[in-house]
Design brief:
The complex is a heterodimer of chains A (296) and B (560). Helix content of chain A is 34%, strand content 23%. By secondary structure, chain A is of the alpha/beta class. Chain A has one domain: P-loop containing nucleotide triphosphate hydrolases (Rossmann fold, 3-Layer(aba) Sandwich). Chain B is built from 16 helices and 13 strands. Classes of the chains: A alpha/beta (296), B alpha+beta (560).
Chain lengths: 296, 560
């Protein structure tokens, strides 16, 4: 018979509610109970670009998102934080319906992009995706030149006018703070760029089509600290010009570069408010526990 | 005493422990596995390089002039020839002499026991002659004749005169052949076309129609015009042949027989015992040139293999061009569009099994389907006149197109499997990136997936080409012939004749090596053809690999 060591993990159910660092609300979530989200008033006062409305999503029999309702403010940076597997990326990929590509996905509820229902059966998915830009965890430049990467979304629309393409290319690359580094080798392969440059190229590609929402899925998780710094600076510059929805694991990044922060846990929205409030005086102590790194 | 026992037992314990640790050490470092895997690789490499070296050495040395030995036997018999091999027989050492002069001796090779041989020498004027007909001839030049007139006498003078006159005689001979084959053939084809037009008119509108009468009249006109031209052409050829007639080179063989060889029937003649190294090199290159650029002679056992080189390369390229789009499209559907399910799995297994079907089965299918169904249908629609007039099918028999299609079918599984793997290796993140930009499925495939998968697809194509170029069995059924000197591309309308039968190097190896009446004399030729075939396949593959590496640099650079 071994004596319990101090490193032994105590199951949630065994812990007394008031002693648990993650709090009653999260325990209730873990037990599968319906829990209302705490949404601060400032969020509701903003003009939304995207409204997520009682959105549920299942992968087969497993429910990944539980009745998410949250407005995403116009021309602000909104960060989604939460422990791994809480559904942040799934929510992001639902916005531009990339989850359609996964078989066995089922949804209820809706989202509205500037008032247009995203999950309306009459909605043309391709046209919808052209209204958004997305940047992924790992840089994924296409196997073509830097120039062609940036103007890809115009090319697939059949835009072939040299003047238009040149202008968009320069504007987007300047917008992604990459122009000075690549202006002399626009027609070299994009695969020759460094990881950080590739990620900024992906951002340039995403903003080339003037998206209504920019979706960033942990854009810095595959980058070294210096490249991460540059991409964060870039997100700062995009603030105010684009509506950005960013998923991140990095609390500092969320606190530095976002205007609003939403905390998710096990497929539910727990608390959503201005970043300063979430990080300094959240309504829930569960949120405080997470953003200060005491669990997750 | 007890302490001694202690140490002994401790020692044995320690020994056992060391033994175990030595074993675990070996297993951990994997030394034996390095030897095992390295040994397997070395064995494979040794077999491949051994085979290649054998082919290269035997194939490349065929045309090098060997010294001619005059072998005098104890019983006074004399033979002149190249020593092809020596061996240790039961009765003592013996050597194989390539004696040739088939019309006099009745054999090409002869074995001599060393004990039988009195003297063996290399006489200065011994000459080897490669003739148009009758195989090699070995002897000593004695006189150069023109009719009954003796132009030169004695080996030295005769050889000088031969070297002076031979080239012109050969030029005239070539010109006469060209006239017969090209000019005369052209006229014959015009006649045939006019004749077929008459039959066509008959078939179309009956033999009492104005069409038919017009065709008849046209045929008459062509016949009279061609008859005049034919006469002129024949006269020209006859004049050239007349000029060559009578010129002959008289030889005395080792056994004392005299034989006069027509001057224009001598392809090459050399005196290996007199030649310097550079002289030998000249003969060597001249014989290679003939081999690569000329038509075959003497049941393919001599002369060149140009039509076979042409046929092999053309068939392989057409096959690659046909199989690439089919294979890539099929693999695209399987990988990108078809859902995952038992049906897709079954199809995939079936494709893999197709790669294991014996190639002769594809040949039988090609003959039955392409030649006898599709080809016969084409003949019926477009080439009926030829079928009725000459009983000769055009597309309804084996030909370059059908052979290429059959091989395309044979290599299709290789391309499909390789393409599927290449498509699967395209990272999903690229596809998602493209969709996120608002691209449709086909746009994503065309702009992102295919370029990225292209090097992998090329690998499949290279494998398919290597397999297809070396096939023989199916080709025998669908269009490869022992002799077909008319190339599928020539100067007669419509210039490209994909229905024509063709020659193929791999089939030539089989034909010359195993179907030739005199396989021993043809053996060096077999090695040379094999060497050539291996070289051509290697060159085709190198070209494809070069193309692939260029594509790779463009589309799949290393990340980070």
């Amino acid at each position: 018979m071994q004596a319990p060591t101090k490193h032994e993990i105590v199951p949630h159910s065994a812990a007394r509610p008031d002693e648990s660092p993650i709090g009653d609300r999260l325990l209730a979530v873990a037990a599968g109970r319906e829990v209302p989200a705490e949404v601060h008033d400032q969020v509701l006062a903003e003009r939304p670009v995207l409204e997520i409305d009682r959105f549920n999503l299942w992968y087969g029999a497993k429910q990944a998102l539980h009745s998410i309702t949250m407005p995403i403010p116009h021309n602000k940076v909104t960060a989604l934080v939460g422990p791994s597997g809480c559904g942040k990326s799934t929510l992001l990929r639902s916005v531009n319906r990339l989850n359609d590509l996964v078989q066995s996905v089922r949804i209820t509820g809706d989202m509205r992009l500037n008032g247009d229902s995203i999950y309306d059966p009459r909605m043309d998915v391709i046209e919808l995706r052209k209204r958004m830009g997305m940047v992924f965890q790992k840089p994924n430049p296409f196997p073509m030149s830097i120039y062609e990467n940036v103007v890809y979304s115009l090319r697939i629309d059949g835009e072939n006018s040299r003047g238009v393409l040149d202008e968009v290319c320069e504007l987007s690359l300047r917008g992604a703070a990459l122009w000075d580094e690549v202006k002399d080798r626009l027609h070299d392969s994009a695969l020759g760029l460094s990881g950080g440059q590739q990620q900024r190229l992906c951002i340039a590609r995403a903003i080339a089509a003037e998206p209504e929402v920019l979706l960033l899925d942990e854009p810095c998780s595959a980058l070294d600290p210096i490249a991460t710094g540059k991409v964060e600076d870039l997100i700062q510059e995009l603030r105010g010009r684009y509506s950005v929805l960013i998923v991140t694991h990095n609390m500092q990044q969320a606190s530095r570069s976002s205007d609003y922060t939403a905390f998710m846990y096990l497929g539910r929205l727990i608390e959503y408010g201005p970043t300063t409030e979430i990080f300094t005086k959240p309504i829930l102590r569960e949120t405080e526990a997470y953003v200060t790194g005491r669990f997750g | 005493m007890s302490s001694d026992a202690m140490t002994a037992s401790e020692g044995s314990k320690g020994g056992r422990r060391r033994l175990r640790s030595a074993y675990t050490n070996v297993a951990a470092q994997g030394e034996p596995w390095v030897w095992l895997t390295g040994g397997a690789l070395a064995t494979a490499l040794a077999m491949i390089t051994g085979l290649l070296c054998f082919i290269v050495v035997r194939g490349a040395s065929t045309f090098w002039p060997q010294p001619l030995e005059l072998v005098e036997l104890v019983d006074g018999r004399k033979t002149l020839g190249e020593i092809s091999s020596r061996e240790q027989a039961a009765q003592g050492p013996r050597r194989l002499v390539r004696s040739e002069n088939f019309e006099l001796t009745g054999s090409h090779y002869e074995w001599f026991d060393d004990a039988q041989i009195a003297v063996s020498s290399r006489p200065e004027w011994a000459t080897a002659v490669e003739r148009l007909e009758g195989g090699r001839f070995h002897g000593f030049p004695s006189r150069l004749m023109h009719g009954d007139e003796v132009v030169a006498e004695g080996p030295g003078k005769t050889w000088q005169a031969f070297e002076r006159l031979h080239a012109a005689a050969r030029r005239r001979w070539r010109e006469a052949l060209r006239i017969d084959r090209h000019d005369r053939g052209d006229l014959q084809r015009q006649l045939r076309a006019a004749r077929l037009a008459v039959v066509q008119a008959d078939l179309r509108s009956g033999d009492d129609s104005p069409d038919y009468a017009a065709a008849r009249a046209a045929e008459q006109a062509v016949t009279t015009r061609v008859a005049g031209r034919l006469e002129a052409v024949d006269q020209e050829a006859a004049r050239l042949r007349q000029e060559n007639a009578g010129w002959g080179l008289e030889f005395e063989t080792a056994s004392g027989d005299k034989q006069t060889l027509p001057l224009d029937g001598i392809v090459h003649a050399w005196q290996p015992n007199r030649l310097s190294w550079w002289g030998k090199l000249g003969i060597y290159l001249a014989r290679w040139q003939e081999f690569l650029a000329d038509d075959p002679r003497e049941a393919n056992s001599a002369g060149g293999v140009f039509p076979a080189i042409w046929g092999t390369v053309a068939m392989t390229l057409i096959m690659a061009i046909l199989v690439a789009p089919f294979g890539v499209l099929a693999a695209l559907y399987l990988r990108e569009y078809a859902g995952r399910g038992p049906v897709t799995t079954a199809i995939r297994i079936a494709i893999n099994n197709l790669a294991g079907v014996p190639s002769i089965v594809y040949g039988a299918f090609g003959l039955g389907f392409f030649c006898y169904v599709i080809g016969a249908g084409i003949d019926d629609l477009f080439f009926k006149a030829s079928l009725v007039a000459d009983g000769q099918p055009t597309f309804g028999t084996g030909g370059l197109l059908w052979a290429s299609l059959t091989l395309a079918l044979l290599t299709l599984p290789v391309v499909i499997v390789a393409t599927e793997e290449a498509l699967a290796a395209v990272p999903n993140s690229m596809r998602e990136g493209s969709y996120a930009c608002g691209a449709g499925k086909w746009q994503t495939i065309r702009r992102i997936v295919l370029p990225r998968a292209l090097p992998g697809i090329m690998t499949g194509l290279i494998l398919a080409m290597a397999r297809g170029a070396g096939e023989v069995a199916p080709l025998m059924l669908v269009g490869v012939k022992k002799l077909a000197v008319d190339l599928p591309i020539d100067g007669t309308f419509p210039f490209i004749h994909p229905e024509r039968e063709f020659m193929h190097l791999a089939y030539l190896i089989y034909d010359v090596g195993f179907q030739s009446p005199n396989s021993q004399a043809a053996q060096p030729m077999v090695f040379t053809i094999t060497f050539l075939l291996v070289t051509i396949i290697a060159l085709l593959n190198l070209a494809a690999i070069w193309l692939r590496s260029r594509l790779k640099r463009r589309f799949v650079a290393q990340q980070f």
